[in-house]
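User: Show me a protein chain along with its predicted structure.
Assistant: Here is one chain, sequence first, then structure tokens.
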Amino acid sequence: MRKYLLLLISILLCLVTLYLINVINPYYVLQENIKEYLYLLVIPIFLTFIIALFVNTKEYYWNRLFPSLIISYLITFLFLGIYFFDSYLDKQKIIEKQRLEALNDIKKGIVKKKFGSGLIIFDENYNKRVKEIDSLQRKKYGFFVESTGCIIYEEDKYYNEVVDEYLQKRNGKNWENQYEKEVALIIKKYPIKEIER
């Protein structure tokens, strides 16, 4: 009975480790560097065989494996905890840096919202539409838009949060609703048209 209980605990610890690895960054695990995360599964198993040599030596070697596996996973959790804490501190530094950058830009009179533009459709009315929307943003609502290209950076979100707070104070609580209505009117005025060839 004890062996089955230890086996169950070992399997649960293995599953929890897999879950934590996936939480760290699923895209990174699957696409970029799967080796690092496989080590987090393989190392505890390797440690198990070593720990089993020294723990409770009066027992048969194979009887010592499951308790050793539990110890190995607990060590792995300790390192994962350190990693999570370190990642948290790094993220806080990024947030603080972006917030300070946004506040400094606002003090200089540079009120911009960053966004990833993705694919831009250039059409016959594109320049007229963009010019009028840009004029509306700058003159009435006090900001302009800066495209970061096709890539959407997570840190831009923290920058934009500070800008949004400033714009809410400047333009009133629900200013975005009025702004979106005015943008919709401009798009209606200059609809997307295919360039005639």
